[in-house]
């Protein structure tokens, strides 16, 4: 049967599949489409930058940046799907930096079976709580707000190109697909391009005015410039949630948009003759007193419940909350421990007259001389080293050693037969069995 099916498949020229059940022809078609999309991307960006340079308004051209954080990933039809936790869209120009930002924290319900991964991802990266109270819950509403944000930025009834780093292209595509599916809209209306490609085509034009950059190395610059994280710890540009979270500037989507903008301005603003301003083209340093005052004004001391992250089990299967509950002392136990504790007694051996007045060699020699005149049984309990205590004599009765071992062993009452069977040890010793003669017994 299997052989006949194989021959039939070969004769009918049926499509071959991978071990995952994917059509090989379909995969090759997708690869060609991806190559064609990338080629069109470079052509469109090059045309856009070239037109702006020819018309001398490159500093005023606006680009849309997007960054996304997620809670967990799952495999759907052999492709990863990202569940968003936070995302931000921002309009950028070399002249004014980041102008408008559309920022959203997602509070949608986590599907069954993915909450553990969502908690761990949140705890290890962006710290956005799962099902945050102040976020958006409906993806259709999120799409409507995003569409209204882009409404005034349309070019001939089409949305502007969206730029993100190559590592985030797939998560951004998953975000756009999720929003469009919820609102029953076409996801193809959003074109997601690589930020590295935009940087490369800008550098091809602007680096002609710089002597400290090698034009031949532009692809290398573009591939590494957004992984340097030069402005990763600059504070003051986070969202309302990450503003008071440790390490918020590192993962906040809104802050990341500003970091990308400062990187672009640092490379291209000065050669284009743009007036550099703090807070727009590079991060401004806020007044430390103002920062402290702002933090104190927003300080809240509440008896909050234990964090939900304490419910995440460790590799040993024990939660942090349970570990603290079991191992920590109560107030009464701590007071009892303090009352029963004794002060530490410090002994200064250098002040002891017995050890300090006698030379080291003399004490060792005297111990050695004393041990020479002792019997052998007492010598082994004599100390041979400085300040070493002699061994304690054994508490054994010496009369036991005077007893004959043979008399002790041959007593039948000490070794009775087990269960009334067998022969006593004395009979076995007196009348031993003779080994039979033959091969293997050492006899010739």
TrEMBL record:
Molecular function GO terms recorded: sequence-specific DNA binding
Location in or out of the cell: Cytoplasm; Nucleus
Biased amino acid composition, Polar residues: 352-373
Domain Maelstrom: 79-286
Region (Disordered): 352-376
PANTHER family membership: PROTEIN MAELSTROM HOMOLOG
Similarity remark: Belongs to the maelstrom family.
Keywords, comma-separated and alphabetical: Cytoplasm, Differentiation, DNA-binding, Nucleus, RNA-mediated gene silencing
Protein name as catalogued: Maelstrom domain-containing protein
């Amino acid at each position: 049967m299997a052989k006949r099916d194989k021959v039939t498949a070969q004769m009918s020229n049926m499509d071959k599949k991978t071990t995952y059940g994917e059509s090989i022809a379909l995969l090759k078609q997708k690869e060609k489409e991806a190559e064609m999309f990338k080629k069109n991307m470079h052509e469109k960006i090059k045309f856009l930058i070239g037109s702006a340079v020819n018309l001398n308004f490159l500093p005023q051209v606006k680009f849309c940046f997007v960054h996304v954080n997620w809670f967990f990933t799952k495999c759907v039809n052999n492709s990863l799907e990202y569940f968003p936790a936070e995302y931000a869209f921002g309009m950028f120009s070399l002249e004014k930096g980041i102008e408008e930002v559309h920022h959203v924290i997602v509070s949608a319900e986590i599907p069954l079976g993915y909450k553990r991964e969502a908690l761990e991802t949140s705890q290890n990266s962006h710290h956005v709580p799962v099902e945050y109270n102040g976020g958006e819950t409906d993806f259709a509403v999120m799409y409507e707000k995003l569409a209204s944000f882009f409404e005034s930025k349309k070019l001939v009834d089409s949305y502007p190109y969206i730029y993100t780093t190559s590592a985030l292209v797939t998560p951004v595509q998953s975000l756009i697909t999720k929003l469009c599916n919820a609102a029953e809209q076409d996801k193809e209306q959003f074109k997601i391009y690589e930020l590295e490609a935009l940087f490369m085509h800008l550098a091809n034009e602007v680096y002609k005015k710089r002597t400290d950059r090698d034009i031949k190395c532009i692809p290398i610059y573009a591939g590494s410039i957004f992984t340097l994280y030069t402005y990763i710890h600059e504070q003051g540009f986070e969202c309302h949630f990450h503003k008071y979270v440790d390490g918020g500037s590192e993962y906040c989507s809104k802050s990341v948009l500003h970091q990308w903008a400062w990187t672009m301005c640092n490379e291209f603003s000065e050669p284009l003759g743009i007036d550099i301003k703090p807070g727009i083209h590079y991060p401004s340093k806020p007044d430390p007193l103002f920062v402290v005052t702002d933090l104190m004004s927003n300080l809240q001391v509440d008896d909050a419940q234990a964090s939900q992250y304490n419910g995440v089990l460790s590799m040993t299967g024990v939660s942090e909350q349970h570990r603290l509950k079991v191992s920590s002392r109560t107030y009464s136990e701590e007071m009892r421990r303090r009352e029963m504790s004794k002060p530490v007694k410090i002994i200064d051996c250098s002040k002891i007259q017995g050890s300090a007045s006698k030379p080291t060699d003399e004490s060792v020699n005297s111990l050695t001389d004393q041990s020479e005149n002792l019997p052998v049984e007492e010598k082994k309990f004599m100390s041979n080293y400085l300040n070493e205590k002699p061994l304690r004599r054994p508490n054994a009765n010496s009369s036991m050693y005077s007893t004959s071992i043979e008399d002790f062993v041959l007593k039948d009452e000490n070794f009775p037969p087990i269960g009334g069977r067998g022969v006593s040890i004395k009979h076995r010793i007196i009348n031993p069995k003779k080994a039979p003669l033959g091969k293997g017994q050492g006899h010739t």
